[in-house]
Design a protein that fits this description.
By secondary structure, the chain is of the alpha/beta class. It is 41% helix and 19% strand. The chain has a single domain, classed as 3-Layer(aba) Sandwich (Rossmann fold), CATH 3.40.50. Strands 1, 2, 3, 4, 5, 6 and 7 form a seven-stranded mixed beta sheet that branches.
């Protein structure tokens, strides 16, 4: 069984951050949904704050170097991407946008993407649809229908009984798992795997 690889990008600035917490919730929901489909998976999370200087250097020079080059290879080579950003002044963070700007234009072509965002109040949630979704649509990513926004109050207390956030996370994880499962060409087969050996050809003559 081929293991599905999930890359998670968190653009949270604090530590700990609600952005990372949402990213972890989304990845946990995805792995659970993949397991329900009898698919194994692995998750690798990348904190953009840890490579912020490399991102700025790449924007200035036009070339990713060091840890950033390895990070880009891991993210663009994954079977699916979870991308979560805090919202500032009704849009994604500058760090998040800078990271997306250094991605090669076709590097996420057809890759399933699950979007998440965090902010102070629910009125900022529409930024996922008018800001973040068009960004990844431009990159020809396969963005799942359900995106997830978490406001500050969503993390307080034990309001999961009345809070729609857990159910939205579960629904988004299910859609994301479906896209990963159905993705054509996510694991291309070896074109030579069915070529008979020399001994087999001799036996067939």
């Amino acid at each position: 069984m081929t293991e599905r690889r999930i890359a998670v990008v968190s653009a949270g600035l604090g530590r700990p951050s609600s952005t990372r917490l949402l990213a972890d919730r989304l990845s946990a929901a995805t792995t659970a949904e993949l397991a329900a489909r009898e698919l194994s998976s692995s998750v690798e999370t990348f904190e953009l704050r840890d490579i912020a200087h490399d991102i700025v250097n790449a924007m200035l020079t036009g070339f990713p170097a060091g840890q950033l080059r390895e990070t880009l290879a891991e993210i663009t080579g994954a079977d699916g991407l979870i991308a979560v950003s805090p919202l500032f002044t009704t849009s994604y963070s500058g760090l998040f946008k800078s990271f997306v700007d250094i991605l090669e234009q076709d590097s996420l072509n057809g890759v399933p993407v699950l979007l998440g965002a965090t902010g102070g109040t629910p009125r900022h949630s529409l930024a996922l649809e008018y800001a973040m979704r068009p960004l990844f649509t431009y990159l020809h990513a396969d963005v799942v229908p359900t995106s997830v926004f978490a406001a500050t109050d969503d993390w307080s207390g034990n309001g999961d009984q009345v809070n729609p956030l857990p159910k939205r996370i579960q629904r988004a994880g299910g859609e994301f798992a479906d896209r990963i499962t159905q993705r054509v060409g996510a694991h291309p087969t070896d074109p030579f795997q069915d070529v008979p050996s020399f001994e087999q050809m001799l036996r067939d003559t």
